[in-house]
Design goal:
heterotetramer, A alpha/beta (739), B alpha/beta (427), C mainly alpha (207), D alpha/beta (306), A: Rossmann fold, FAD/NAD(P)-binding domain, five-stranded parallel β-sheet, B: 427 residues, alpha/beta, 8 helices, 24 strands, disordered C terminus
């Protein structure tokens, strides 16, 4: 007696009924799909259609296949969290992708039948994910770094009711902000420097029993995973303490680019040439002494100050920072105001190439001009200190001539921010922009390295524009200048956002749920260790460093670090890694379920493995807009091309498919793969498939990988058509009928 | 009648653009109850109308797909479209929010099969292409519209066209009797993420946006380059449909200007740099872009992109705020008059098309927000005395997408701080 | 006027910007320029000047005193106000240009032969003498300002125009003897004398 | 229509046999029809114009204008000061605003005015004739008295600079002001709204000192009018009128053009449309005869229309 736990529903709405023989399709589900309970419905997403399904579920159905519209459509109606669900895309995937003509009818029907076969086959291999049993226990937030970003993170976490452990390398809290006399305003009228507010933050943190503060302390080791991190903190005494942690905010800030690398700008040649930090120091000393800022060389009165923008920044020679630190224009404006507000008679000149004060910075700029700060568009060639005076030589870009400012009592070099992001895990001996060899900050005991991966110029930023808190180390979020050069206002905003993500990671780990982008996914990779050959591919290729190795180099999965992309599954040569609802078998079964006509049928079969985030929606939308494509393709959405195991390709080819198209996201520097390197890995693996093809004496054209984008509504159908032509040219696969 | 369950534990997010969606999703994924309010028929907002993002040149719809998937799988998030907030009273932890729900004339039976649209003949200006094209008066806002449900334009309701749509629908999804509703709901915290709107280019009289067909805005240009757009991605001239290969980009069109917007809109420089690459993508070496600027504000690693564009032979930079645009009476070519201030070079440059990098102003200016708030002189939200109302994204400042999302994430946390059940150690 | 220049030089050693701010009408606006160049592109006589307004402002900041004050660029201003209405920083550029020209004139540094300088002085003198403009004298004065011969040439060249206006009743030959004038000429003279005094004091010209 | 009364500031060029005397003539005729009473400010003086700067400096210029305000306030108390000349209006308005903004300047001005036994209280309103027409009367009312619509006359509205910038007419844009076109249409003429030189500078006073440069400007102004198929140019500014009309012969010599484009005042169009004789409308005051207007002006008014 058939297993009543499996049910399939064939919808004939939206023209499906008119375009294909739904009854035949239903019969296929029953006969070939071996589904005991098969129902047809003219309007399945209607309340009574849905009620019907609910009823069956109520009566014991645990696995449901719905043959109707795309898995992207009608998700509210077809929301059955208590069962394993497979969807056959008969609307966007079949009737809308095909012309409504008599000659097309037969092949369109075959498409529909196959998709139903595939859904049924998938269903048989699926399990409803039970969730990760290895749930987290702790929701404490570890904040690394006690500067304005770290302090803000700690305070915000506390306001949200979470305990905080704060580790600061220095003896005092406050970081850079504590070194400033005042900060750039972040409220109207944006007219004058304001108090940094760092004192209040320090008090809030130190007076709060809910924050454990370790100063003069560093992280000796960080192990574990979200919800169960273990931080070993080396404290002043030389001893070390362990803290259980839910998630981590890394706010380790920046170091100023070392001005001593700029001798041509007078650095090191005279005490009257300072960087912005040096000027802040002078300003605070002046305040303490109640005197105006005086000339370091002889304590003389300052009558003229020159600010040199982009000092060692936006550099094209390759010697200095190539990027712009973004905050320095406003900082120089602020510092020029230190002088103008105290004594309008002091001449202050800012020499800049582009004045970069976005947003309300424009008000601050205007205010400075109003106070008499002179702005000169020019490129500084050199600064020549001579006794107590400095001469600044520059190219005046407006007057288009070489010019000089003589007798400057002070020259301030606006040098940039260099991230304190720890070691470069891709290149352990790399030195930072200041020529220093970084020491690790997190000391992660991860297989893939001790610190966060860096994006560019040594900053640990997210690669994604839509997702600034995307991290390649789940549960660890960078905030403030360590992630991107930024000013105080941005750093505080950033820290607040990062804390939310940390809290989210800690909370979700307790529920065994995945973090972004598969938020809420309860499936997780399971490994059959007895079959494992310790080849380490999974531990090396995991984009998120989720998999460690034990002493016998067996993989150790840390589920709550995992993002469920399946790259490990794709990597595994012995196929011992799988997810309950997404496995070598769920896809393999679909591939095998397709009915392969014989080689004389002139009906090739092309397997399309499509990234579910970009390629698959693009195919859906192409069809919605009436862009048709070949009836010979059978599309299977995959979590990421990285999850594609080569066995699927060889199975397909052995099974008589005539070609395989793999559609993934752009890779390279501006990669768009949301699992970082999935599409890149797939391409690399497929290059090796060529060998396999040769051994099978098949043409290499039979496997092709494509970089596609979600906007390729016209291009994708064209790619398919073109590929169908290629197949037509090289002929049908000789493997047919052997399977 | 629309049913909505909301309590003082609920976070109401106003605005379904990327900032609002982000704030709503982040809060929901922290286990909070969220109600997302969107004025238009679909989520996505301004970014859904962009072709590519700087500096990666990736597609906004890619991130939108992910966010929509997060949203579909979240049980804590409820979306109300065609809903407008008319009043917010109360304070931190105890707000009451008044809503006006406009009729969609299409109910949840809609399968998005498109039969109504095929049946209807009446066409309206397509707001998703800034009116550069027409669309049927029964429409799906755009290919990625969520909810994936059609809309009837009020103009055809009560006309034979409306009846046609109704007759065409097999699923009883069209309800011509729908009326406007008002709704009052509770909320513990409110996140205001109504985003931005382009500054009215017609007000920049010297550039003749209101007089010359071949002077367009940077947002209209996004639509021209987008395969989903009115030209199917072909960059052509509105006046004669000819390929526009020589394109001028004028920065600070309305921004940094006491006569218009006093602030710098932050995104325009990068947006124009990005758009020069659209020209290259479309026409290769034949394309020609000229950027007229005061300061190129490509901060942090955006500088890398600026460098890349600087190295592009097809792109020229002129340090100048153009004085005016004239039009060649015969060819309708725009001719830009001004002076390159780097060394004082006078020019009168003819182009196929001029793109004004229009400034950013809040879509709902401070004074028009139906709640007592402090806004800056440009209308961006600074704070609210009621303690549980937070601005997010471009409602709070001129921000790029990345910073908008940061801002939205931060405001989600602030909202959570207000509504969190006091089951945790108190701060 | 050399004395006044000496005194100014002494007072504002290498700070021309401050000199302009204190002594030139609307001079305090010069510092607000952000070098966008909209003024330069908006000026009808743009192609004819050596220095555009924005460039003049930059030169002032750069302390190029002699170059600025002896420049004839300011004298090219037609008072069309295009620059003023387009300036994103709302600088009263026309007035600043006039102010700079006037100041240069006061210091005796303005280009001697600049026709507009002469005409400007001529016009003011003409209209303040009687309180109203004597168009005929103004015109003739203009023609003859470069000397008798040049004047006769110019007048001859313009004879048709003059004749035309005469025929059209828009030129009164008798103005040469007695034109329009205000009754209270004396009062106007006194009032102007006072005005000059006050301005000298305010701008610190007085020795 | 209730009689409207204003303190009239005609300005030097509008005086008897002045270069813009025909402007005055037509304004009088127009105002008579519109029942507007313009009483000249007793003993008014020159505004100093913008070109007077080199001699005047700042304060003297303001004092000259303030004297007119003081006189108006004394003799025509409560009446707005209305100028017909762009330069007069601009100069006066600028003084009014400056003094209003600076107590110092106001005090200094009055200290000087005392020498002439006058005082400016700062309450004077400064208007342009066009403002009176558009704001106080309105297009509709302006159209009412039309008895001879200027049918078929193609007119390029040349606004010029100083009635347009920096103050301009409320609601109009600096780059594309439309009020002249509206006035033309009000009196039944055909406004050439696409005329793109409408705000180009004619060189102003520099037409005298820098003739070549100015005439290059004027050439564009006239040429474009021809391109648009204009029968004539209309302007609100005496200096514009003079420059654009008078120098056409020189331009023809210099550039070999054949310009013969009449340049009239809006007030002349209106006077003619209101039925004035050529003389009343000051049509005799042109070097280049506005023949089209002339033809209409000499036509007998259709009976019953008056």
């Amino acid at each position: 007696m058939a297993d009543l736990k499996y049910a399939a529903y064939v919808c004939s709405g939206c023209g499906i009924g008119e375009r294909i023989d739904a009854a035949q399709t239903a019969k296929i589900a029953e006969k070939e799909g071996k589904i005991a309970l098969v129902r047809q419905h003219p309007f399945l997403c209607s309340s009574d259609g849905v009620a019907l399904i609910r009823k069956d579920i109520g009566e014991g159905a645990t696995h449901v296949a719905i043959a109707a519209c795309s898995r992207r459509a009608k998700t509210e109606a077809f929301h059955f969290p208590s069962v394993a669900l497979a969807r056959a895309n008969l609307r966007e995937g079949v009737i809308w992708a095909r012309p409504d003509t008599d000659e097309a009818r037969e092949t369109t029907q075959e498409m529909a039948d196959d998709y139903v076969r595939m859904a049924c086959a998938e269903l048989k291999k699926m399990k409803l994910p039970a969730g990760n049993p290895e749930v987290g226990r702790s929701t404490r937030i570890l904040v690394v770094g006690g500067g304005i970003s770290g302090l803000t993170a700690a305070v915000e976490a506390r306001k949200t009711g979470y305990e905080v452990v704060l580790v600061e390398k220095q003896a005092q809290l406050g970081g850079w902000a504590a070194k400033l006399w005042k900060r750039v305003p972040d409220r109207e009228p944006h007219a004058a420097p304001v108090d940094t507010g760092v004192r209040e933050l320090i008090d809030a943190v130190t007076k709060d029993a809910g924050v454990k503060v370790y100063t003069n302390a560093t992280l000796a080791q960080t192990s574990g995973a979200p919800g169960r991190f273990n931080a070993t903190i080396a404290i002043e005494s030389g001893a070390s303490v362990n803290e259980e942690i839910g998630a981590i905010v890394q706010a380790t800030g920046f170091s100023l680019y070392d001005m001593n690398r700029l001798p041509e700008l007078g650095a090191g040649k005279s005490p009257n040439v300072v960087d912005q930090a040096g000027l802040e120091k002078l300003a605070r000393e002046a305040e303490a002494s109640g005197q105006p800022i005086c000339r370091p060389s002889d304590g003389g009165e300052v009558k003229s100050v020159v600010f040199v923008q982009c000092a060692g920044q936006r550099d094209e020679s390759g010697k200095h920072l190539p990027y712009c630190s973004g905050y320095c224009c406003n900082t120089s404006i602020k510092q020029a105001m230190y002088f103008k507000d105290a004594n309008p008679a002091v001449d202050t000149v800012v020499v800049y190439t582009d004045l970069r004060v976005p947003g309300n910075g424009e008000d601050f700029y205007r205010s400075a001009q109003h106070k008499g700060v002179v702005f000169t568009k020019g490129k500084v060639a050199s600064v020549e200190p001579d006794g107590n005076a400095c001469t600044v030589n520059f190219r005046d870009l407006i007057l288009d001539e070489d010019a000089r400012i003589e007798g400057a009592d002070l020259v301030v070099l606006a040098t940039g921010q260099v991230a304190n992001a720890g070691v470069d895990i891709e290149n352990a001996d790399a030195t930072d922009a200041n020529g220093a060899k970084p020491i690790s900050i997190l000391n992660l005991n991860y297989r893939q390295g001790k610190d966060l991966p860096k994006l560019s110029h040594g900053f640990a930023d997210s690669h994604f524009i839509c997702f600034p808190y995307e991290t390649r180390r789940t549960g660890i979020y960078a905030a403030g200048p360590v992630r991107r050069p930024m000013d105080i206002a941005q750093a505080m905003e950033d820290a607040t956002g990062a804390v939310l993500k940390a809290i989210q990671a800690a909370e979700n780990s307790q529920l065994g749920r995945s973090a972004h982008p598969r938020s809420g996914d309860l499936s997780f990779p399971m490994v059959r260790l007895d079959g494992c050959t310790q080849c380490k591919r999974c531990t090396v290729e995991c984009p998120f460093g989720a998999i460690d190795e034990d002493e016998k180099t067996y993989p150790v999965f840390n589920e709550s670090r995992c993002r469920r992309c399946g790259t490990c599954m794709g990597a595994c040569p012995v196929r011992v890694i799988s997810f309950e609802n997404y496995s070598v078998d769920t896809v393999g079964a679909q591939i095998k379920a397709v009915d392969i006509p014989d080689e004389f049928s002139e009906k090739p079969r092309i397997l399309v493995l499509a990234c579910e985030n970009d390629a698959y929606p693009a195919l859906d939308m192409a069809a919605m807009q009436g862009n048709h494509y070949s009836a010979f393709v059978r599309v299977i959405p995959v979590r990421c091309l990285g999850s594609v195991n080569t066995i699927w390709i060889t199975d397909a080819l052995n099974g008589g498919y005539d070609g395989v198209m793999m559609m993934g996201c752009k890779h390279g520097d501006d990669y768009q793969c949301h699992f970082v390197k999935g599409s890149a890995l797939a391409t690399e693996r497929m290059s090796k498939v060529d060998e396999t093809l040769k051994t099978m004496s098949l043409e290499t054209e039979r496997v092709a990988t494509y970089e596609v984008a979600i906007t390729d509504l016209k291009r994708l159908p064209q790619l398919i058509e073109d590929y169908a032509k290629v197949i037509d040219k090289i002929g049908m696969s000789p493997m047919k009928g052997f399977a | 009648m629309t049913e909505v369950v909301a309590t003082s534990q609920t976070i109401v997010v106003v605005g379904g653009g990327i900032s609002g969606m982000t704030a709503a999703l982040e809060a929901a994924e922290c286990g909070r109850q969220v109600l997302l309010i969107e004025k238009t028929p679909a989520l996505g907002g301004r970014t859904a109308l962009l072709y590519r993002y700087f500096p990666k040149l990736c597609h906004p719809t890619c991130g939108l797909e992910i966010n929509l998937r997060r949203l579909k799988s979240s049980r804590n998030l409820r979306v109300l479209t065609m809903a407008e907030v008319t009043k917010i009273t109360g304070a931190r932890g105890d707000y009451s929010v008044s809503l006006k729900l406009s009729p969609r004339y299409v109910n949840e039976n809609c399968t998005a099969c498109g039969a109504c649209s095929e049946a209807v003949e009446a066409a309206i200006d397509n707001p998703y292409n800034y009116g550069l094209s027409k669309m049927k008066a029964a429409y799906l806002p755009h290919a990625m519209a969520y909810p994936q449900r059609y809309v009837l334009d009020p103009s055809i309701v009560g006309t034979p066209e409306g009846e046609k749509a109704k007759a065409a629908c097999k699923y009883g999804a069209i309800d011509l009797g729908m009326k406007q509703e008002t709704l009052e709901i509770k909320a513990g915290a409110v996140i205001w993420a109504t985003g931005w709107q382009p500054y009215d280019a017609a007000k920049i009289q010297p550039y003749g946006y209101d007089r010359y067909p071949n002077v367009i805005t940077s947002l209209e240009f996004e639509r021209l380059a987008d395969p989903h757009g009115p030209t199917g991605g072909k960059i052509t001239r509105p006046s004669d449909g000819r390929e526009a290969k020589d394109i001028a980009f004028i920065q600070c069109a309305g921004s940094r200007d006491e006569n218009h917007l006093r602030h710098c809109s932050r995104i325009c420089c990068m947006a124009s740099l990005k758009q020069t690459q659209y020209v290259r993508e479309a026409y290769g070496e034949e394309g020609k872009s000229t950027v007229y600027y005061i300061d190129i504000r490509a901060i942090d690693r955006f500088e890398d992109f600026y460098r890349k564009v600087l190295a592009d032979k097809t792109v020229r930079f002129v340090k100048s705020k153009p004085a005016r645009i004239a039009e060649d009476r015969k060819t309708l070519d725009p001719v830009i008059h001004g002076v390159d201030t780097e060394g004082y070079h006078r020019y009168a440059s003819r182009h196929d098309l001029v793109v004004l990098a229009v400034g950013m102003e809040p879509a709902v200016k401070g004074a028009d927000i139906p709640h007592e708030i402090v806004a800056d002189s440009s209308g961006f939200i600074e704070s609210a005395a009621s303690g549980g109302f937070f601005g997010a994204g471009c409602a709070s400042n001129a921000l790029d997408v990345n910073r908008s999302v940061q801002s939205a994430t931060a405001s989600a946390l602030r909202a959570i701080q207000v509504v969190r059940k006091s089951d945790r150690v108190e701060a | 006027m050399g004395a006044m220049n000496e005194q100014a030089l002494a007072k504002y050693t290498n700070n021309f910007l401050r000199e302009v701010e204190e002594r030139v009408e609307e001079g305090e606006w010069v510092k607000m320029c952000m070098q966008c160049g909209v003024c330069a592109g908006s000026c009808p006589f743009g192609p004819d000047w050596e220095h555009s307004p924005q460039k003049i402002f930059m030169m002032i900041r750069a302390g190029k005193r002699d170059e600025v004050l002896s420049s004839d660029s300011m004298w090219m201003c037609t008072s069309c106000y295009n620059c003023v209405v387009r300036c994103p920083r709302e600088l009263p550029i026309t007035q600043i240009m006039h102010g700079l020209a006037t100041y240069a004139q006061r210091l005796g540094l303005a280009p001697k032969m600049n026709p507009t300088r002469k005409f400007s002085l001529l016009f003011w003198d003409n209209c303040t003498r009687t309180g109203r403009v004597n168009e005929l004298k103004l015109a003739l004065g203009l023609y003859f300002m470069d000397g008798l011969v040049a004047g006769i040439k110019k007048a001859w060249a313009m004879r048709n125009t003059g004749l035309g206006l005469l025929m059209a009743g828009r030129l009164n030959p008798f103005e040469i003897l007695k034109g329009h004038e205000c009754k209270d000429k004396a009062g106007i003279q006194r009032m102007l004398k006072k005005a000059y005094e006050i301005e000298e004091k305010r701008r610190g010209f007085a020795k | 229509m209730a009689k409207k009364e204003y303190a009239f500031y005609p300005g030097c060029s509008s005086q008897l046999k002045g270069s813009a005397s025909n402007y005055l003539t037509s304004v009088n005729s127009m105002c008579e029809t519109l029942d507007v009473k313009m009483t000249p400010i007793p003993d008014w003086n020159c505004c100093g114009a913008s070109i007077g700067y080199a001699g005047s400096g700042e304060l003297a210029r303001h004092v000259m204008n303030a004297r007119n305000f003081a006189l108006a306030d004394e003799h025509l108390h409560g009446q707005d000061v209305v100028a017909t000349c762009a330069a007069c209006w601009l100069g006066a308005k600028e003084t009014k605003e400056k003094l209003g903004a600076s107590a110092q300047l106001m005090a200094d001005t009055n200290e000087a005015l005392k020498e002439a036994g006058l005082q400016y209280k700062g309450n004077t309103q400064v208007r342009h004739m066009v403002e009176v027409l558009i704001e106080d009367i309105g297009y509709e009312q302006l159209g009412a008295p039309v008895v001879k619509p200027l049918e078929g006359v193609k007119i390029a509205g040349y606004v010029g600079c100083q009635t347009n910038r920096p103050f301009g007419i409320a609601g109009e844009s600096f780059e594309n002001p439309l009020y002249l076109d509206k006035l033309v249409e009000t009196v039944g003429g055909e406004a050439l709204t696409k005329y793109e030189q409408k705000v180009t500078c004619c060189g102003g006073a520099l037409a005298f000192s820098e003739p070549e440069k100015s005439q290059a400007q004027i050439k564009d102004i006239v040429e474009s009018a021809y391109d648009q198929g204009a029968d004539m140019i209309v302007t609100p500014c005496p200096l514009c009128q003079a420059n654009v009309e008078i120098y056409q012969s020189d331009i023809n010599k210099r550039y070999g053009t054949k310009f013969d484009m009449p340049v009239a005042y809006y007030s002349q169009l209106m006077a003619v449309a209101y039925g004035a004789t050529p003389k009343q409308a000051g049509l005799d005051g042109h070097i280049i005869k506005p023949t089209k207007l002339q033809e209409i002006a000499v036509k007998v008014v259709p009976t019953g229309k008056r």
